Amino acid sequence: MVDRLRSDIYEGRMAPGQYLPSEKVLAEEYQLSNKSVRKGLDLLVKEQLIVKIDRVGSQVLECIPGSRSTITFGITSSIERDFGLSALLDDFHSLYPDKRVKTVLMKNVPDHTDNMKGYLEQEKIDVFTLNNMDFQNLADYGQLHLLEPLQADGDLYRFTEEAFDYDQTLYAKPVVFSPIVLAYNRKHFRKARLPEPDSSWTWDDCLFYAAQLTDGKDQFGLYFYLLSDNRWPVFIVQSGMKFEPDEGNSLELAGTRLMECIRLCKRIATDSQVYPGYLLESSRDVTELFLQEKISMIMTTYMAMNDFKETDLEFDVSPLPYQYEPRTLLTVIGAALYKNSKNKESARLLMNYLTSERAQTMIHERTLSLIARRSIAELQLEPRQGINRPSRFALFREIMSSYRLHREMNLSSTAFNGLRQLLKKYWWGLMDDEALCIQVNEMFSRFGANDDVSKP
C-alpha cells in the first residue's frame, strides 16, 4: 500500500492538496487491518508526503523544492516485458523516495542511432537502454563520447560486459541477455511421435522433422522472421567464417561456407513444405503464430518467451540446429548513462540498481529473461505460480561456448546494412548466386568490411 501511494504521489497521479481514500477504503482495497493502514500512513507523514488532518483525512503535501530529483529513463517498447519494469521502478521508488523516474519511450525508427543521439544531445534522457547492436552502431559512428565510462563488475557474466566494451572501456551495464534458441511445441512432437530437438540437430535434421509436422493448412513445422537482425546473421556465424576482404578490398563469396549458409537461408525460406509464406512485419508475428499453435518450431530469445509465461502453452527450448559450426547469436540489453546529464548521480543510482542483486533477483524470479549477474542467474528457481517456465530453461548455461556477438562477423554498421539489402533481394529471387557474389564484392570494394565510418 505504502509503495503504491508513494508512487502515485511522485508520479503526479495524486496531486498536492488531494485527499487519500479513507482508512476504511484503503483497508478494504489492500486487505489490511485498520492498524496496518494507520502505520503505513504514519510512514508517509514522516516522509513529508502527506499530512493527517483530524476528522478530515490524509492530504497530499506540496513537494518541497529540491527535495526530490527526476531521472529521465529512455526505454524501447519491449523493456517493460524484458525487465518487468513497472515492478522494478516501484521497488526503486520505495528504496529512494526522494527520486522519481520518468520513462521516455524512444521510438524504434530505421535510423535508431541518430534517434538515440538526438535524445541525448537534446538532454531528453539521463540514462537509457540499448542492445549490443545499438552500441556497435554508436561506436561505428563515433558517438561513444556521449556515454559515461563505467567500471566493470566481476559478478556480471564477462561476455555480457564484452558486448558494451570498446577499446577496453565499458560504456553500459548489461542487465539481461539471451542466445537465439529454438523453441518448440511439445504437444506437436508428441502427437506426431517424433523425437524432440537436441544439440545434435543440423538444419537438415530440423527440416526433415519440420516436414513431418506440417499439414500444409493450419500447421507448419518451422518459422522465423528472416529479415530480423537477430535471425539471418545466425547462419553467417555458423559458417565459421568472417567477411575478410583482401588488401584490395576484394571478397570472393562464391564457393565459401559463407555462401553455402546464405544459400541455406534461401532454401529454408522458400520451402513451402515446412515454412509458411505469410507476410510478416516483425518477429512478434512469429510469436503470435506460435502462441496460436500454428507453428511447431521457431527461432526466438528468452526475452521474447516472456510472451508465453502467462499461458498454458506446452513448449520447451533447444540449441539451434547448425550448418558447419554449432554457434548462435548473443543479444544483450544494458543501461548506459548520458555523460553530460545534469542529474548524473541520481541517474547512476538507477543504472546501478538495475544490475544490483535486488533488482536482478526480481527479474530472475518474475520473468523468463536471463540476467547478467552470474551469482543470481545460476541459483535454482523454485516453481512460481503464474509463470510458464520451460523445463530446459537452464539450457543457456550448457551452450555458452557457442555464443557469438554480431561484431564477430567483422562488418561495420554500413557493411552490415548494405549486405542485408543485397541478401533481401537474393532471398526474394531478384538475383541469382552469381549476381549476389558480384554485388557483394562490389560493395566491399567501395568501403571494405569493417571501415571506421566515423572517420570522414
From TrEMBL:
Residues 1-63 form the HTH gntR-type domain. Pfam families: GntR, SBP_bac_8. The keyword DNA-binding applies. CDD domains: WHTH_GntR (cd07377). PROSITE patterns: HTH_GNTR. Gene3D superfamilies: Periplasmic binding protein-like II, Winged helix-like DNA-binding domain superfamily/Winged helix DNA-binding domain. It comes from the Bacteria. Coiled coil: none annotated. InterPro entries: Bact_solute-bd_prot1, SBP, Tscrpt_reg_HTH_GntR, WH-like_DNA-bd_sf, WH_DNA-bd_sf. GO terms for cellular component: cell envelope. This is HTH gntR-type domain-containing protein. It comes from Paenibacillus agaridevorans. The lineage of its organism: Bacteria, Bacillati, Bacillota, Bacilli, Bacillales.
